[in-house]
Amino acid sequence: MNIADIMTVIGFVVVSLIVLILLAISIYIYFVDRTQRQHPVLRNYPVVGRARYFFEKIGPELRQYFFNNDRESKPISREEYGHIVKKAKYKRDVEGFGSQRDFEKEGYYIRNSMFPMLTEELKMDREAKVTTNRYLLTKDPLFTQREEHLEEENSPVYLLDEDDTIVIGENCQDPFRVRGQIGMSAMSYGSLGERAITALSEGLGIAKGTWMNTGEGGLSDYHLKGGGDIIMQIGPGMFGLRDKEGNFNWDELKEKSKIPQLKAFEVKLGQGAKTRGGHVDAEKVNEEIARIRMVEPFTSIDSPNRFPEFSDLPSLFDFIEQVREHSGKPVGMKVVVGSHFEAEDLAKGIRDTGKGPDFITIDGSEGGTGASYQELTDSVGLPIKSALPLVDNALKKHGVRDRVKIIASGKLYSPDQVAIALAMGADLVNIARAFMITVGCIQTLECHSNGCPVGVATTDPDLQKALVVDEKKHRTANYLISMRKGLYRVAAAAGLESPLHFKREHVIYKDEKGKTWSLDDIYQSMIQPGGEGSMNA
């Protein structure tokens, strides 16, 4: 028997074995499907019925990549995702052939000036520069991997001029001084893995002039790695600032306050996407996370939807005063606004008591989260563009706006959206999901499962191997620098020397029929004496 015959026999045997194995597996699956009681489809159509569940499972990916157009997918469309990635990866944000926006729909527009500011007329820090790595795309073929290479680029970081520094907690022992109007919203270690937190921390540190909010999971070494400014969030579970019984630990607060990077505290009353308390599944709570949060390892963590320490504004303000006195740092509060009544009560309380927060973070209902419930994410609380003017109006009406800074958050991940939020009354803006995208998020919507395939929203060490900190930190820095640059570009187009000067008069609202109003027209009645009833406008 020659070699060819031997190979033919071997091939026949191998193929026969494969066929027999597949047949045996199919027979086994057939009887399993036919006898199970859970799925009627499988009982009637064993084996082949599994195709239904396979396609159902990959449905989100099919829609994301094949069937949804560039502006349909949620929560962040393919077009929006692409803009974020281009800023982070290539430090570019140029479009060709015009906008894809549907100009027939209602929406907000920034009023341009007939005489925009020249670049040299803009008031900003021209000395501060940093070097980051960005990709240069050289070829983008259809069937093979695109060709691109890294290059170092030294660029300005587009910080506010030193004279325009935003001061939070001016009367505090240790005020917080900020020269960039965009920072990272609350994202906890535990919700994100250590590599994601480290990459974000180091990237923000490279970009300078910004801040990182720890989220309610406590302050970790990974938040501190980049050397940037930190806002430590205090949630109802008081993670990282509690004793063994779960009570607030004032001694631990004092110890944390000694960390130079820690610039402020934020008392979290609510979050746009989950007005309930937070939840972390047991598989995410490894021993390190348990130590930082001061809880038991490998047990699910649920924080209540309200602090047991206070139940009304006076007791909340007393708690804020105590935190400020013990720490010497500014103290803010994070809220979801439900109506103008709440905004009014808050502003009146600040006026009447002389107490209250140094800053208010307003989180719109469109905000993101690692895990929450559909009924809360979809229908509880107002979106940021409705909530923000209500609080700004109320604070102005009661004469306390100059005491309180406003931070806005809720899908504000492009320079024009940030500019509109600033015009609506924000001093600063928080961003979360766009920063997640800079370190690799691809929107698989698996944040709650600890199965994030790109190693971002997971503590699984094997999955985290996908995330290379030294590469992703530059993407975070590039995105933030590009956002600031774009914000200055929009300000120049509006005839402003700095984005610090955006006001309501600089934004126009257009309805579907083409009729326009300035924000100043829409909201002016809200701050007139006796105009409380018009706040629903």
Give an account of the 3D structure:
The chain has 537 residues and is of the alpha/beta class. The protein folds into two domains: 1-67, no CATH class; 153-510, Aldolase class I (TIM Barrel, Alpha-Beta Barrel), CATH 3.20.20.70. 37% of the residues lie in helices and 15% in strands. The protein has 18 helices and 17 strands. It has helices at residues 3-35, 40-44, 50-57, 59-67, 78-90, 194-207, 221-224, 250-257, 287-293, 313-327, 340-353, 374-379, 384-397, 415-423, 433-438, 461-464, 469-493, 519-523, and strands at residues 107-110, 129-139, 147-156, 166-168, 176-178, 182-184, 211-213, 229-234, 262-268, 279-280, 301-302, 331-335, 359-363, 405-409, 428-431, 507-510, 516-518. Strands 6-15-14-13-12-9-8-7 form an eight-stranded parallel sheet. It has a three-stranded antiparallel sheet with strand order 1-16-17. Helix 14 (415-423) crosses helix 17 (469-493). It is globular, with a radius of gyration of 26 Å. Residues 529-537 have low confidence and may be disordered.
